[in-house]
Amino acid sequence: MSRFEKLIFQLLRGISDANFAFEDLRSILLHLEFEERTRGSHHIFRRAGVEERITLQRDGEDAKPRQVRTAILRHKLGGEG
C-alpha cells in the first residue's frame, strides 16, 4: 500500500481527525491534482470539476480534515492514484 493510499484510508475512516497533519492533507490534495494558492495563513485548493474550494489553515502542525473528506467523497476522488 502506497503512502497516498494509507493517507486516504486514514482520512476517509475519520478516526484520527484531531491529529491529522496539515502536510498530509496538503499532500493528498496535491496528489489529487488540486491547485494550491496561499493567502496569508490560509491555503486554498481548487480543482476543475469541483465547485467548492477547500481552505486549510494550520492548527499547530495539524489541520481539520472534514472539508477535505467531504469533497473527496462527494466527487469520488479517492479512487485516483
Task: Provide keyphrases for this structure.
81 residues; Metal Transport, Frataxin, Chain A; 3 strands; single chain; alpha+beta; 3 helices
Explain briefly what this protein structure is.
The protein is of the alpha+beta class and 81 residues long. It has 3 helices and 3 strands, in the order ααβββα. A 3-stranded antiparallel beta sheet has the order 1-2-3.
Summed up, the helix count is: 3
Report the sheet-strand fraction. 15-25%
Q: Give the CA-based shape.
A: globular
The major pleated sheet works out as: 3 strands, antiparallel
The whole-number mean of residue pLDDT values reads 91
State the CATH class.
Alpha Beta
What CATH architecture would you give?
2-Layer Sandwich
Order of the strands making up the biggest sheet: 1-2-3
- Secondary structure class reads alpha+beta
User: What is the string of SSEs from the N terminus onward?
Assistant: HHEEEH
Alpha carbon gap, first and last residue: 11 Å
Description:
It is a single chain. The chain is α+β, with helices and mostly antiparallel strands and 81 residues long. The protein has a single domain (3-74), classed as Metal Transport, Frataxin, Chain A (2-Layer Sandwich). 37% of the residues lie in helices and 23% in strands. It contains three helices and three strands. It has helices spanning 3-13, 22-31, 66-74, and strands spanning 35-39, 42-47, 50-57. The protein has a three-stranded antiparallel beta sheet. A hairpin with a 2-residue loop joins strand 1 (35-39) and strand 2 (42-47). Helix 1 packs across helix 2 (22-31). It is globular. The chain starts with a helix and ends in a 7-residue tail after the last helix. The mean pLDDT is 91.
